[in-house]
Design brief:
alpha+beta; Pnp Oxidase, Chain A; 7-stranded antiparallel sheet; 4 helices
């Protein structure tokens, strides 16, 4: 699978700011590391479509995606409130409306990712079910 590694500035500066502030509609997801079994947190922009909450990977087969596949339990936090979910990967054929909603929500910030990875198969999408 394709993967666009984030530049150092994004990893070391922007992600930390986004985790701390929720800038740009970001929320913090915490997943279990597939090798370390330690919690790993990254900022994401969840999107709600027809009453279901989704996570979309702009960068493709990222670490959080691989961790979530290995252990589908995820906590999503925003402004001190955390909800526990179980994630299920959405089949490629069902991703298009979710990706469209995500791109509309996230705006120009994510446009470049789809220019580099135009195929929906390159953008893992997970449906979130509360509880678990």
């Amino acid at each position: 699978m394709a993967y666009l590694k984030p530049p150092l500035l994004v990893r070391e500066v922007f992600n930390r700011i986004a985790l701390a502030t929720g800038i740009g509609g970001t929320e913090k997801i915490t997943v279990t590391g597939r090798r370390s079994h330690e919690p790993r947190s990254v900022p994401v922009v969840p999107v709600d479509v027809e009453g279901v909450r989704y996570l979309v990977s702009t960068r493709g087969d990222s670490e959080w995606v691989r961790n979530l596949r290995a252990s589908p339990e995820v906590d999503v936090s925003r402004r001190g409130h955390t909800t526990h979910y179980t994630a299920t990967e959405v089949p490629v054929g069902n991703r298009e409306p979710i990706i469209a909603a995500y791109r509309a929500k996230a705006g120009k910030t994510v446009q470049g990712y789809w220019e580099k990875l135009p195929n929906p198969a390159d953008h893992p999408v997970f449906a979130l079910a509360a509880g678990g």
